[in-house]
């Protein structure tokens, strides 16, 4: 007989409904000053029973990844040097944020973590490649370290915090670097480990991003995965709210680095936020909305530098009148054209998907015609092998350095004028794979990467900076969202 899940048995008792999960991203934990800001924010939430999820300190995951990659190429000396730099940085932040006494306890913990990392380097060099499994071991250290430092700093600041090993709470499959939680197992462990602490009014602190298989092998949830950790915890605990603390004022109408005029979007539906994350908005992990949505738990995206700001509130029914919420550009996309030698029979389609799946490829978007299939992917790693496997059945060609531009909003598709405006405005551009049938909430198309920034700026100007002038006559409701103060 299968085990009864926590959810089925209704173990998430009413008192837990009071908790709030607070995830702090790397930039919100970049240094001691940032950690002190996080402490002030958490202290204000004490009556709501916070559960704190920490990302790695800013840029640490990138540095660890780079160290692993150079180790794989045989440059052990550079990898060692990177680790030494990271160790010094963690020690400095630990000392500054937690104070000298706590540092005495933290320093050996940091040393043990780095000792393990140093031992990984020769293993990576021997393999000659950074395998996915080794990558998970390497990258996960960032969250182990940051969560310990945050925990010590909280204690020092008078918060009754308890550090929990996230790898013992989040149980996943073995899809290393992109693991998916095993829900029943994870819910149970979260209820067992986290809920009693909340009942005692203590503050659990966990690293985001990391988990482990049922055999205890470390995994990660994909880059940016701490958001998903927060959502998993919120869903398991039936929290009243999940807060994603970052360094921007919320979800913005587009990437502010591309377009400084980008403005805060005050409210969004779960589906809109999930689409935005999927189509490349960096602010949220693509899978992070689903658990919150299933339990109907509001998610807020907030700025840790301006904690008094309203941020973006993501709920089931935001009740706003906006047609379009945001424009995203997902770069680094490759379009793969699979041309059937004869015709695209259903068996061939199945074979094509099987081959992609065997190579662990995530298919992003596809369009098919009689004899060919176009697929978008974000890694070209296995494409030569895939082409080889399909030889004789189909010709496989690909073109990299593409960008997928998406316009997202609950009613984008129900306003046919919008597609017209977009394509008229971009009539000088070679658009590929225009796609507006699959979802009600978006229109997307592929362009060459070099054009992406300019096009996003043009579209942003069109829809968010010229509100009623050019479009009010043909469109009854505001095209853009009533953006906040930014
Ligand atoms: N530190 C991890 C990353 O940079 C996870 C996260 O920050 O959410 O991808
Ligand atoms: Mg993130």
Keywords:
binds aspartic acid; globular; binds magnesium ion; alpha/beta; disordered N terminus; 19% strand; 6-stranded antiparallel beta sheet
Short description:
This protein is of the alpha/beta class and 486 residues long. Helices cover 41% and strands 19% of the residues. The site of aspartic acid (ASP) has 12 residues, from loops.
Notes on the structure:
With 486 residues, this protein is an alpha/beta fold. Helices cover 41% and strands 19% of the residues. It has helices at residues 6-9, 32-44, 60-72, 76-127, 132-156, 166-169, 183-193, 195-199, 226-237, 270-278, 289-294, 346-358, 383-389, 416-425, 449-464; strands at 20-24, 50-54, 161-164, 203-207, 210-212, 218-220, 241-246, 267-269, 299-303, 312-315, 326-340, 365-368, 372-377, 394-408, 432-435, 442-448. It has an 8-stranded mixed sheet, sandwiched between helices. A hairpin with a 5-residue loop joins β5 and β6. It is globular, with a radius of gyration of 24 Å. Residues 1-15 and 468-478 have low confidence and may be disordered. Bound molecules: aspartic acid and magnesium ion (MG). Aspartic acid binds at residues 25-26, 55-56, 61, 142, 208-209, 223-226.
